[in-house]
Amino acid sequence: xxxxxxxxxVVSTQSTGEFKGKYGAVQVPxxxxxxxxxxxxxxxxxxxxxxxxxxxxxxxxxxFEATLAALAAEKPLKDMTVSEYxxxxxxxxxxxxxxxxxxxx
Length: 105
Prior knowledge:
Radius of gyration: 39 Å
Distance between the termini: 103 Å
Shape: rod-shaped
C-alpha cells in the first residue's frame, strides 16, 4: 500500500508518526447546508411544470394529427371547385363575400 511505501521511504519514522497524529487531529468545519431544501423544491416544481407541459404537448399533437387526417381526407385541391373548397369554411366565405361587396361599383 501507499502508506507502507511511504513509511519505508521516509528515514525518520518519528516525524512521520508526529505528522500523522497532527494531520489526524485537523478538523475542517463543513458549512451548513442551506440550499438543498430550496433546490429540492425547485426540482419538484420543475417536474410538475414539465409533466403539465408534456400533457399539453400530447394534447396538441393529437389535435394536429386530427387536423392532418381531416386534410388528408379532403378531395385534392386540383379536383375541387371554389364552392366545394369554401363549403366547410364559412368564415373565409363570409370574408370573401364582404370583400366582394366593398369592391362593387
